[in-house]
Prior knowledge:
This protein is an alpha/beta fold. It has helices spanning about 10-20, 40-45, 60-70, 85-90, 105-115, 130-140, 150-165, 195, 210-225, 255-265, 315-330, and strands at about 1-5, 25-35, 70-75, 95, 125-130, 145, 175-180, 200, 230-235, 240-250, 275, 295-300, 305-310.
Amino acid sequence: MLKVAIVGASGYTGIExxxxxxxxxxVAVTCVTSEQSAGKNVAAIFPTLRSRYNLVLENLEPVRxxxxxxxxxxxxxxxxxxxxxxxxxxxxxxxxxxxxxxxLHDAKEYAAWYEPHMNPELLxxxxxxxxxxxxxxxxxxxxxxxxxxxxxxxxxxxxPLLKKKLINPATIIADSKSGVSGAGRxxxxxxxxxxxxxxxxxxxxxGAHRHIPEIEQELSLLAGKELKISFTPHLVPMDxxxxxxxxxxxxxxxxxxxxxxxxxxxxxxEAFVRVLPxxxxxxxxxxxxxxxxxxxxxxxxxxxRVIVISAIDNxxxxxxxxxxxNMNIMNGFPENLGLESLGLFP
Length: 346
């Protein structure tokens, strides 16, 4: 059994890791941490875990954690992760980091969007953990930077078109909607029930959202040249889920069926990407609680634009499920192990 620690287990991604790993036949969770809830039983924080986990949340002491586990998930805010990840690596542990701290390759870019990086030498070592595009590198990595939720939905949505150079990268517009859990579990006035219920709003407008450099970094690699996109996120009054509607101008003539065929071929054999038939469109309701990314495709016959619509659960394929998928690859387990749950509907 692989002994696993979850550092930062009292947030939404932490509980999702615990839920998913409970059904994983090759894993035993041996250590969980929480600075705010240290000393409490994890089932007291999350009653869904009653009679299934009897772990006490510990303070974040990297050496002690490394003594109890072979593999580490760091489900911490940015900056907090980079304070402890180097210690875990020096102690010979492999890490999947769910924060933003190791997603960007350029330390200057990270500083521009966040703050100066404490260990920039690790940015080149970290592998961006999108399995459908980085599987071989993930398998050999000691440090995997788990992608953000918005980037996962957009990168998977655009990868085939950019790889085949079938769209003009300068025309990409991504319009994304997320459930409130994407903002995390910490108390914030903007996320109170009365603030979000019966409302629907944009935020991070005008190129201000911190996921933009991550999205552009990976899309540029796919396109083979640097690109910029227009990205606007929205907050939807639901618990979880992301729906991204992506627009781009094609290079040459394309039909909806030709694009569907391209995507089905590109993602052939992928366990967690479902390309829908022509005229079928995805919904967050059909991926909720699962590790799937559903993709629907069409052509706007009036404007000629390609329209790609992708749906994921932001806490699963957009975070913890993808982290488990990466752990499986890194340890030579079947990639779908512990992740075969179907979506919850209704």
